Structure formats: structure tokens, C-alpha cells
Amino acid sequence: MIYILYDIVLLCSGLFLIPYFVWKSFRKGKVRKGIRERFGFYSKDKLAKIQGRETIWIHSVSVGETRAAVPLIRALRQEYPEACLLVTTVTETGQDAAGKIKEADLCLYFPFDLFWVVRRALAAIKPKAIIIVETEIWPNLVRLASDVGIPLVLVNGRLSDRSFPRYKAGKFFVQQILDKFSAFCMQSELDGQRVQWIGALREKVTITGNLKFDSKTITYTQEDTDRIREELKIPQGMPVWVAGSTHEGEEEDLIRVYIRLLKDWPDLILILVPRHPNRCGSVGDMIRSHGFSYSLRSQGGLEIKPGANGKVFLVDTMGEMFKMYSLADIVFVGGSLVPVGGHNILEASMVKKAVVFGPFMNNFKHISKLLQKANAGICVQDKEELFHCLDKLLRSPELRQSLGNNGFHLLEKNKGATEKTLNVLKTILRS
Predict the structure, then answer these.
(1) Quick one: fold of 26-209+416-430?
(2) Where residue 32 falls among pLDDT bands split at 50, 70, 90?
(3) Is 79 annotated as catalytic?
(4) What is the pLDDT of residue 17?
(5) What is the three-state SS of the chain?
(6) What is the pLDDT confidence band of residue 401, given thresholds at 50, 70 and 90?
(7) Region(s) of the chain under CATH 3.40.50.11720
């Protein structure tokens, strides 16, 4: 009865949401790219990659989850070289990130969670197992997969402060869904307790740690950074502040902080990387409203005009975050000055950079506490604290280096989630 009600609600929502989605996709010129796959229709070329092979389906909603899954996907490729590794995502940015994973055989858009769509997708893909990254729990996918004996495993699982009360409020329904999972690989003890509180059986829960700690460390030599500076036309010796994964309502605060910093640091370059590149038009308008010009990454490198007020480089391309971080003297990770929940602050630590973030880190609560405890990152409460923090870091190269090194050492110390998760998956796949 619960699932019937869920389908009715989903269908009623779909009467409005699906036409909107089709219109939005058509306006962007990407109808053929994703619509058919979201309804469970796949091209013959893509299905040919699946035929005759055991398929392991990994689902990650967007960029962050997809990047977190990379170490596990690499381990699965090593362990099961003949298997077809399928990665699905919900967002277009996630699909772009998935397409860059060389170990993945196939990338598709995740089907709408309507029962006939999911049934069609399962019949076409015929997965040996479904691995869901973090907390993407879709009732019809879980129910229908379980009904035909496909094991489901939640990996890198977490329940944030914001999502946990919602799951707890719907515990009666949620528990029925969780019963159909074979295993839960959770990031922390708290996440493990929370998933049990909403209905997961204790014997199915394993604390594996966070896969993000196992991301491949990217090493940039001085020659690498010199080459990137030359490519982006950023002069040697000029300090660089990179604000990555920023959101609406956040960029304007960052520009106001930048204006204040320019009084003592007139050569400071701000590299602004919005989380969603399609927002760069409105972000650019906001930058101009404060009297700044800016350069777009898609048009090449930074153009420094004589007498210009500030030097803002707006990144409207995908897949260049590490390149930008490699140039930074200081990194600020967005989605944290506004109540979004934050983004992956470990990416800055991977390249040994001082990282600063705001108070809204619900999605990375455990990691942010670890970084602060290890003196590897700084949490600021608002733009006023951010200004004073950045000014202090600009004045102290030694402090910046210490923060970056501490973050890198923290990464090395906490590796191992991939191996623990793989051990759980091997047990499930053997059975």
C-alpha cells in the first residue's frame, strides 16, 4: 500500500515536473543527451557494452558523490576485470565527471523512479549488484531490484544533520526500504548509529570510513605550477585566492571581502569557480555591478588591464578545479557561507593548500571537524571573519604551508575506506 501511495504522489508530481524537465532540457539543446535514458531507453551501442558481461551498477547523484566513488571504482576494476562497470548520475555535471573515469565502461543518466521506468531499466541492464553512493535511496529502484534478487549496497553512507530528521520522521516507510539492502558501509560511527535508528539491521552495518580520503593524491611540481600560470596568463609572484564550488548568495559576499583585501593586497588575484558553470552569466553581472571586469576561463587566460580595479578570473569550464587549486595561496571552499552544506574540503588538502570554509558544513561535518582538530583547515562564521582570516594567511606563508602540510598528512592517515568497502562488496557478490 505504501508503494502504491508513493507511485501516485510521484505520478502527480511527474505531470508537472517531467514537462518542465523536457522544456528545460530542450532549451539547453540537450534533449537527446539525457531524456531517453531517464525513461529507461538506451541506445544499442551502449547496451552492447553490457551484453554478455556481469554488470556492477554504481549510482552517484552528482559531482561530489561521483568523485568520491572513483577509488572504489578503480578497486572494482582491479578485482573484477571482466565485469562491466556502469556509473549512473542524476545531474549533467555528475555525468561529465563520470565520463572522465577511465575505469568505468559505461555512463548513463539515472532513470526516473517511476515503477515502469525502473522495471525497463533493470530489464535492459540486468545488474549483478547495485551500489548506491552516500544516501541516494530511491524506493522503486530498491523494491524492484530486491524483488528480482539483485543485491543492493549503500557505500560511503552518511546521514547529515539536515536529512536525518526527515528520514526519522518517515521511519515506518524508510525501514521497509532499508530492509531490502544487503549491506550498509557507513562513513562514521554516528552515521552507523543513525542508519540503525531509522531501521537498518545492526548486522548489516559496517563502519568503513570515508572514500574521499582514498582519492588519488595529485602532485604538482614547481614546473607544473609555472606551466599552468603561463597557460592562464597569471604573472609569477602575484598572490592567488581561489574560491571553489561557490553558490548563489555566496559570491557577492566573496567579492565584498575581495574589495577590502585589495586595499592592502592590490595584486591579489581572485579565481572564482561557481559550483554550476551555467550560473557564470549571472555571477559575471554581479561582478560588474561592483565595478570589476573579469576574464572567462573559456576564453583563455586572465587578462590584466592597466589600471583595472582588481583581477577576477571566472571559471566557466568543468574539470579544472585541481588545476586552479594548484595555483592558490589560499583556498576557500563554497557552499559553506550559505546553508547548502558545504563541498569537499579535502581536495585542497590533496594539493597541500591552506583551506578555509564557512559554518554550513553539514554534508562534511565529520571531515571539517577532523581538519580543524589537525590544524589543517579554518572555519569562519561569516564574511567578516573570512576577511580577517584571509588577511592573516596572506601575511603568513609559514601558516599557509603548515595548514596545507597538515591536511595532506591527515589524508594519508585516514586512508583505507576503499579496502574495507571492497571486502563487504566481495562478500555480497560471492553470495
Answers:
(1) Rossmann fold (3.40.50)
(2) very low
(3) no
(4) 63
(5) CHHHHHHHHHHHHHHHHHHHHHHHHHHCCCHHHHHHHHCCCCCHHHHHCCCCCCEEEEECCCHHHHHHHHHHHHHHHHHCCCCEEEEEECCHHHHHHHHCCCCCCEEEECCCCCHHHHHHHHHHHCEEEEEEECCCCCHHHHHHHHHCCCCEEEEEECCCCCCHHHHHHCHHHHHHHHCCCCEEEECCHHHHHHHHHCCCCHHHEEECCCHHHHCCCCCCCHHHHHHHHHHHCCCCCCCEEEEEEECCCCHHHHHHHHHHHHCCCCCCEEEEEECCHHHHHHHHHHHHHCCCCEEEHHHCCCCCCCCCCCEEEECCCCCCHHHHHHHCCEEEECCCCCCCCCCCCHHHHHCCCEEEECCCCHHHHHHHHHHHHCCCEEECCCHHHHHHHHHHHHHCHHHHHHHHHHHHHHHHHCCCHHHHHHHHHHHHHHC
(6) very high
(7) 26-209+416-430
Confidence of residue 92 (pLDDT cuts 50, 70, 90): confident
For the 222-413 domain, the top CATH level (class) is: alpha beta
Averaged pLDDT score across all residues of the chain:
92
Catalytic residue chosen out of the listed positions 37, 65, 92, 347: 65
Instruction: List the grid coordinates of 193.
Output: 548509529
**Confidence grade of residue 313 (pLDDT, cut at 50, 70, 90):** very high
Q: Pinpoint the residues of the chain covered by CATH 3.40.50.2000.
A: 222-413
Tell me the pLDDT tens digit for each residue of 270-305: 999 999 999 999 999 999 999 999 999 999 999 877
